[in-house]
TrEMBL record:
Bilayer topology: Multi-pass membrane protein
Assembly and oligomerization: Homodimer.
Protein source organism: Citrus sinensis (Sweet orange)
Name of the protein described by the UniProt record: Probable magnesium transporter
Role of this protein: Acts as a Mg(2+) transporter. Can also transport other divalent cations such as Fe(2+), Sr(2+), Ba(2+), Mn(2+) and Co(2+) but to a much less extent than Mg(2+).
Subcellular location: Cell membrane; Early endosome
GO molecular function: magnesium ion transmembrane transporter activity
Record flagged with keyword Acetylation: no
InterPro entries xrefs: Mg_trans_NIPA
Length: 238
């Protein structure tokens, strides 16, 4: 539909990213499911997770205020970094909202709790920010590159946020952790390949051509950057 194509290295980068993500998901620990909004709030206000939130907000502000004006149009990681970081907070907020809706439908109203409205506000802000910068990324870069890179970054940061919040990694064995680290390195390699493919496409843009015609016969081709002035009315340029 978008008529965009990937080169061979771009396809390799996509496959590498997907394989790395699958390895991470397969070896990820079982996630703990809270049973109330208050329980999620208690987990979200842990010192470890508050440090993650502060770091995330700081990096997002740095990307928006410093890096976007300077390299947002040339580096795909700027827009997608903002989307992915905000997305990791969106997942936590949406989970709290889902639990609140479920309990409310079961007859245990969660509307009166301020935590419910706090999570709703955070989710709304994060979703709007994600959509805004994702649209910018799609308008600027090849969609075939944006999709896998965004998927990889969003998945990785969401797993990291969940691990910090729910402490699911504490009981995992060494082999599982090693597999996840290998998966992350694979994902990082694929992302680098995709970004390198984008830079290569920008530096090898095709040069258009124009053709001279004399009395209807093709004479020669020339690069369009050459300017030609013809004074005789019997000749014309197409």
């Amino acid at each position: 539909m978008l008529k965009e194509r990937l080169q061979k290295m771009g396809i390799l980068g996509c496959i590498t990213c997907i394989v790395g993500s699958v390895v991470i998901v397969i070896h990820a620990p079982q996630e703990h499911t809270p049973n109330s909004v208050q329980e999620i709030w208690a987990l979200a206000t842990q010192p470890d997770f508050l440090i993650y939130v502060a770091a995330t907000v700081s990096v997002v502000l740095a990307l928006v205020l410093h890096f976007e004006p300077r390299c947002g149009q040339t580096n795909i990681l700027v827009y997608l970094g903002i989307c992915s970081l905000m997305g990791s907070l969106t997942v936590v907020s949406i989970k709290a909202i889902g639990i609140a809706i479920k309990l409310t439908l079961d007859g245990i109203s969660q509307i009166a709790y301020p935590q419910t409205w706090f999570f709703l506000t955070v989710a709304a802000v994060c979703v709007v920010t994600q959509l805004n910068y994702l649209n910018k990324a799609l308008d600027t870069f090849n969609a075939a590159i944006v999709s896998p890179v965004y998927y990889v970054m969003f998945t990785t940061l969401t797993i990291i946020a969940s691990a910090i919040m729910f402490k699911d990694w504490s009981g995992q064995d060494v082999s599982g952790i090693a597999s996840e680290i290998c998966g992350f390195i694979t994902v990082l390699s694929g992302t680098i390949i995709l970004h390198a493919t984008r830079e290569h496409e920008q530096t090898t843009a095709p040069v258009g051509t124009v053709t001279w015609y004399v009395s209807g016969d093709s004479l020669k081709g020339a690069e369009e950057e050459h300017l030609i002035t013809i004074h005789n009315s019997d000749y014309y340029v197409q």
